Amino acid sequence: MVKVDSAAFVSRLERLYSHWEGVDEEREELWGEADALVVVVGKDDVLYSKSTTLHLWLFGYELADTLCIFCANEIHILSSKKKIEFIRPLQEVLASRADLPKLSLHTRSKGENDAEQFQTLAGVIKDSKRGKKIGVFSKDNFTGSFVEGWQTALREVKVTQVDVSSAFAFACAAKDEAEVSTVKKACQVTCTVFSKYVKKEIVTIVDEEKRVKHSKLADGIEQAVSETKYLPPGLDADSLEICYSPIIQSGGQYQLKFSTVSSDERLHFGTIVCCLGVRYKSYCSNVVRTMFVEPTKEMQDNYTFLLSVYETILSSLKEGVKLCDVYNAALEMVERDRPELKDNFTRNAGFVTGIEFRESSLLLSPKCQLPIRKGMLFNVNIGLAGLTNPEAQDTAGKTYSLFIGDTVLVAEDGPAVELTGVSKKKMSSIAIFLGDEDKEQENGPGPDIEEQLSKKFLTNRTRMEPASEDRRMKRQKELAKRVNEEAMKRFQDHKDEQISKRPKLSSNVAYKHVSSVPRDAEVQNFRIFVDRKYEAIVLPVHGVPLPFHISTIKNISKSEEGDYVYLRINFFFPGSSLGRIDGVAFPNPDATFVKEMSYRASSTHGVSAASSLVNVFHTIKEVQKRFRTREQEKRELEGVVEQEALVLNTMKGNPRLKDLYMRPVIGSRRVQGTLEAHTNGLRYTTLKGDKVDLVYNNIKQAFFQPSRSEMIVLLHFHMKSPIIISKKKHRDIQFYTEVGEIVTTLGRTQHMHDRDDLMAEQAERELRAKLDNAFDNFRKKVEALPQCRVTFEKPFRELGYVLAGPSLEVDTCVSDQEILPAMFHGVPHRSTVLLQPTTHCLVNLTEQPPFIIVLDEVELVHFERVQFHMRNFDMVFVFKDYKKKVATVTAIPMTQLDSIRDWLNSCDKKYTEGIQSLNWTKIMKTINDDVEGFFSQGGWSFLDPSSDQEEAEEDSEMSDEYHPSDASTVVSGGEEEDSDEDYTSLSEGDSSDYEEEESEESGKDWDELEAEARRADREDAQLDRPEEESSSLSRKRPAPSKKGSTSKKMKLRNGTQPMAEDPAEAERQELGFFQETVQGKSLRVVERAVPSSEVCVFLVHGGGGRAGQFKHQIRRLENDYNVVALDFLGHGDSPAPNEPRLYTADEHLEDLKEVYEVHKKEQNVIISHCYGAVHTLHLIKWLRGKGRAAEVVGVVMMSLGARAPASIGLLGKVPAFVLEWLRPLARASSNRALFTPHTDPTLIQSENFMSNNNRMYVMKVIGADCSDNEMWTAAICEGAEALGDIPRICLYGTEDGVFPEPTCQEAAKTLGVAEGRCHPLEGAGHLCMLEAHKQVSDICQRFIAELTSD
């Protein structure tokens, strides 16, 4: 049974009377001093009228042949008996309200002769207020006997009629929550029909070149509205109707109004204007879009400008603003920015909508002075009419118009909210771009299905069709010319901005005025004084106290020799390598600088002088640490732009995703949280209450990557300006959840049809689908938010992607376009990852750090090492901002070259090729020094293989044979790949650093060469001695080369030797090795000698490890320090005799002692991992017992837990031959403990291959020792005491499966590691020196630099 909504009736009646009886002049003018309101409705079928609008607004239904008289204190309604019974519940409701008029109901006579009742009701008007004027809707002209009878009775009363249509329209313009909810459902249907039918239908017509009339397409749209497949669930199909007949216009004939009708002209493939409006439960919605087929640049610019005007209107639609001011703001923008379009701009910007589609009295026009109220609904429609397209190929395309519109809601705070924003308006969503092949094939015979498939789905293209190759080369020639022209124009437009501003460096002046110099007793007595306030140190020099700022000190060291304590202070000076954390400026680099100063104090004449020097050492270290920490924090804030405040949306139903992790991690360990969308941004809140805000305006790129072939599903945001998280700036923020786990069941036979396995796989598939849908729905809801201008891109992971630029939808595939592989493998950082194109980017999001290249920022792409016999090549991205460091992807399979060429060609990106690796640091520095001269000499044409310049370079270098490694990263110019700085620094005074690096690479000085020659002579003599005459420690190494003792194998990274096929041989060639006889055992040792350095870094691997696991750290440290790493017996390339007694912890410790004694230097640093850290603690305990602990200046311990790993205790209890048999199962178990689900599979495969050398009888002995918890904990406790004041740091992976994070933290605490010296490595597993090698190398390098001197 149909019932009237009493609550809505009372609320709206109260609003009507409140507005009618208002005392302000504005309302009195609107209502015309009406004493009563009279509304009569006949039986006419009228779509829009004020009378039916009032009925629908108050009662929810249209009541035919009904008379309503609204008096000051009473409401009278005359209607049929059935309608009166429908309204009767309202009578009881109004009777209980003293502040509202009473309701009197009158039933019509049976013979429909209502003359007597008409006379009675006409007399009632005289009793309301003054009884002289009645308000009517003058434009409503209903017919019928009922209406005529009332008009006759009304003329006898002789009252004045005034039109109150505008007043009623303004009174009901602000919508309540129920009305807004209904309008939202109507908007949902409108957007669904437009996106799923209108757009796709037009794309199909254009693609298949059908001849369709405007009217026929409009009829199809109207029919689609009634189809249930376009109806969202939960909506009543019977309540849907069309607002107006859909409007389709094209071919130069446009009328930008809603009263026009679709013509019978055929659809023109140019500019297409589409208008669609749908009513749901009598409430209207509307959407207007302009679609393009191959739009010109001018058309795109005009459309983009129209969108900016539209945004201005939305931002102006606020409560209290006059309607005319909104239009004037848009018109002023047109006059200011594009005055030539003023005459083309529409005469109004929209109107209020609701039950009536268009309120003609409430227009966004220059004449309407009424204010905007919260809750008003507008159809915002703006356009540019009568524009000219001079590039059109036909007459119909010469003239075009632009028209866009949406249904918007005036919010309480902020700009208006788009209710039809789901239907996107961006050029990438409404423009159709056709490929060249469409035109070439339209006149030719259609190929058969096999030919189509063979052409479109090519998984491995080895030979190009000549026609395709010719087109590609022709396009590349055009792009080469365009790239140089655009770059030169860009340089001329921003010439004034090319002058580099020198960065503001910290002042190295200790005291700005002599009065600030301290007068303490230490200064007066010519002692070293550390001024904590001014961060300076006052040193006595020849009886004069000289102040030095702490930033001028490079490092400081303390040593004890005999009865004296020495303090050595090293200073920065021009030409020395400046650390990034120091930022020291030299205003006068030609002056004389002090390099170092040393002070000595005797301990025989009392302890005061020696202890004072020790205190000075510690105080300087403390002040230096504080200064560097502060400077580092300042640098972290550089480039950070403060985001606008997040405007929280307090309404329920905000898009939300729960149980997400975030990268980077907030704090020391990852915690789940919730991501929620608000008015102008996103907020991530962890379970601990930490918050991270991402404002839409600061999001540069957004990505959604489902879980297909991945272990996580994620949303990734690439920011325009970095934001601060945990005191560090980050530009990439990622939210993800894990969708599976790697599990291997032990102890039973697996079967492919096992029911449990099938159920588990099905459950995982369902979980993946559920999470993908949740993330995708969140993405769609966020994109539909009114202020969100973010469009999520999805990496292409299918067989192919559409080659002809951005399409209407991600899954749209135009039939005549070529399909190519959409992904390839490469090494953007340190490990091989899968690189996937999106619409505008090239990305890898699952590995950390993420790799994102925005194609719009790329000037050109250069391929290096492209030769016929090579298996891999490199790819260099040169950005339009020449001061930005180029991005390099190495080790790309050569089979992907043609596919990548075609992809770049389709993106209109110029690419070049070369056979050698270039020094891009020097190239970009040269370009930045003289950009204008660079382009005057041909610009980027020097990279073209056909250019004379490159041919000359090839001729000059033919004698230098080049043998790059297929699997290694080839980078010219030393360790430049570790630098994340841009090229700005090269033009800002730091060129001396690069000059020094070049001089160091060009050749060593005579002292170093003589030292290496002497060392080689000693080794040759050692090799010539008979074995029985050799000492307990002898070396066997390959014969040294003529230029020193470094073998060719050790120069592999410079490209002089090709990489071997298997990882083990590749590691041997890269690191180099020699055999040392230690305690009668032959061990493999890796050594890097730097004769000028008195620092030696020892690398000690753990149980089952090897020296090669430190290969990244060896690369980083080998140029500055002596580096020694050994393979313990039974590990790596050391032999593994079947004698269990040789593999005990005591035996390994003795071997480590011997190696240490041979290679130690004045200052020694030990870096150890896991079980190797236990050996290190025993070694330091031994040194402490001999009074030699000062030889070790620092210790780095990685992946060390407080207790023995219980998981490997089983190794010591199972026979060795059984362990060999169970090796595959043991490997699966160890992989779960050593690695994380995110570990690079290539790394896991390589480590598994290398571990084949580990014999199980060796692992059995080590497993027994490692599982001895009493020995393990005793070693840590005794080691903490033995370490004493030796500086130490701990590193561990947050996802270590051998030693979980809490036990690593406990071990660090027991060992007395300072809070700031414990470094958790987010996302890394047990082998953190491999998984997070860059972080580990950075931390170790900084730590050693702090401890050691030059």
From TrEMBL:
Keyword Coiled coil recorded: yes
Record domain Histone chaperone RTT106/FACT complex subunit SPT16-like middle: where: 824-914
Skewed-composition ranges (Basic and acidic residues): 1001-1025
First-listed, main subcellular location of the protein, grouped into a coarse class: nucleus
Xref: CDD domains: CDC68-like (cd01091)
Residue ranges of the region described as Disordered: 942-1064
Biological process, per Gene Ontology: DNA repair; DNA replication; positive regulation of DNA-templated transcription, elongation; transcription elongation by RNA polymerase II
One family name in Pfam for this protein: Rttp106-like_middle
Residues in FACT complex subunit SPT16 N-terminal lobe domain copies: 4-168
Start and end residues of each FACT complex subunit SPT16 middle domain: 528-684
Localization (cell): Nucleus; Chromosome
InterPro entries tied to this protein: AB_hydrolase_1, AB_hydrolase_fold, Creatin/AminoP/Spt16_N, Creatinase/aminopeptidase-like, FACT-SPT16_Nlobe, Fact-SPT16_PH, FACT_SPT16_C, FACT_SPT16_M
GO molecular function terms listed in the Swiss-Prot or TrEMBL record: nucleosome binding
Bias-annotated ranges (Basic residues): 1034-1052
Sequence ranges of Acidic residues compositional bias: 947-959, 974-983, 990-1000
Keyword Secreted: no
Keywords: Chromosome, Coiled coil, DNA damage, DNA repair, DNA replication, Nucleus, Transcription, Transcription regulation
GO cellular component: FACT complex
Superkingdom in the source lineage: Eukaryota
Subunit annotation: Component of the FACT complex.
Function: Component of the FACT complex, a general chromatin factor that acts to reorganize nucleosomes. The FACT complex is involved in multiple processes that require DNA as a template such as mRNA elongation, DNA replication and DNA repair. During transcription elongation the FACT complex acts as a histone chaperone that both destabilizes and restores nucleosomal structure.
Membership in a protein family: Belongs to the peptidase M24 family. SPT16 subfamily.
Protein name per Swiss-Prot or TrEMBL: FACT complex subunit
Organism of this sequence: Geodia barretti
